[in-house]
Amino acid sequence: MTETRRETRDVAVVGGGAAGLSAALVLGRAQRTVTVVDAGEPRNAPAAHMHNYLGRDGTPPAEFLAIGRKEAEGYGARIVDARVERIDRDGRDGPFRLVLDDGDVLWARRILIATGLKDELADIPGLREGWGDYVLHCPYCHGYEVRDRPIGVLGTVPHAARQALMLKKWSADLVYFPHEQEVGDEDRIRLEARGVQVVEGRIRGLVAGGAGLTGVELDSGAVVPRDAVFAPSTMVPSGELLDGLGCARDEDGSASTDAMGRTGVPGVWAAGVVVDPMAQVIVAASMGSRAAFAIDHDLIDEEVERAVSEYRGR
């Protein structure tokens, strides 16, 4: 589908996850013309189910997005399966021009960036293969499903010891593998006090079979039996388009916005984990809705100003 300069949409949403689709739903119901451009790479795709979303707990991520697409399209939103390669603007106050990877061009008055983030994993054999299955990252997303089972926490990031302290309430059989992280004296006291076993040594890899994970292998050759492991990732917001637009980013790389998702660049909003890497699906959806309200108000202000100018010029 090619959208020409003659057809300028009210809003282009980049990213068809919870934040983007939630925004499209709100904007469609507000009688706005909106197009969602989605590259089809949701962060939670490897997970079998999503959790902590009231009314949708346990829903497979792909099913959730399919429902969201159908609802948004029901109010007139268009969904385009493509990747936005760049965004520029026709003058200082003109519409935005989105160039897609299939060669199409989309024009829009306002932009919402909801491109999510990428999880950078430690270089441990077996980690990527088990990601979203027996390799987990969020206690609140997955802790309940592995409760009362032998769990390991891998020292893949500096705050991994903190995650081990959190997970203790889900399992009494918990082992922290510092791997290449140094365990400070205070952390060691906290872990011991909490009853978390610390197994030193560099991790050689994860041992898995047809039934899933069986253990964590150390460089010494020892294998510590585990049913699941938590491996905190380095979360990198997908903000290349924000950079191209001149939008500021915070120290962690996330988009810098106000409470409604407005960036420092007029006409550009951001929502979801590209703004808050810790946001779960339900929070990302809320952020998308909130940004949509703000975008609609901004469009209304512009339309009222134009109407008043035309009225006075009669």
From TrEMBL:
Question: Which stretches are annotated as coiled coil?
Answer: none
The record's keywords, sorted A to Z, are:
Flavoprotein, Oxidoreductase
* Domain FAD/NAD(P)-binding residues, every copy: 10-288
Q: What is catalyzed by this enzyme?
A: [thioredoxin]-dithiol + NADP(+) = [thioredoxin]-disulfide + NADPH + H(+)
The protein's matches in InterPro entries, at most eight in alphabetical order, are given as:
FAD/NAD-bd_sf, FAD/NAD-binding_dom, Ferredoxin-NADP_redctase_2
Q: What is this protein called?
A: NAD(P)/FAD-dependent oxidoreductase
Native source species = Nocardiopsis suaedae
Please give the Pfam families that the UniProt record associates with this protein. Answer: Pyr_redox_2
